[in-house]
Design a protein that fits this description.
92 residues, mainly alpha
Length: 92
């Protein structure tokens, strides 16, 4: 967005709105899914994780490879490993 010459207020406003909407969506998801079984929650989480991986593979990894070259895969795996470890720390 910066390269497209968008003003900083627009960029921060847009990302702030995305963060706020994401927070509301997380709250609604928690409220709705708190009554579902563990199997439904696991399946929903798996679909969401697949969507994140598809987005990464399609849009972000090629751009990251342009800058980090051969370290892109290692950095991606390290990020997912850290996220996994943090999720396990939070659930124990």
């Amino acid at each position: 967005m910066k390269k497209a010459k968008r003003p900083p207020g627009y960029i921060f406003g847009l990302w702030g709105a995305i963060a706020a909407i994401s927070g509301v969506a997380a709250l609604l998801g928690f409220a709705v899914f708190s009554h579902f079984s563990a199997a439904v929650i696991a399946a929903t989480t798996a679909v969401a994780a697949g969507a994140i991986l598809a987005m990464l593979a399609d849009t972000m990894i090629p751009e990251a490879f342009e800058y980090a070259h051969n370290l892109t895969g290692l950095i991606t795996v390290a990020g997912f490993l850290i996220a996994f470890m943090l999720s396990k720390l939070g659930s124990s």
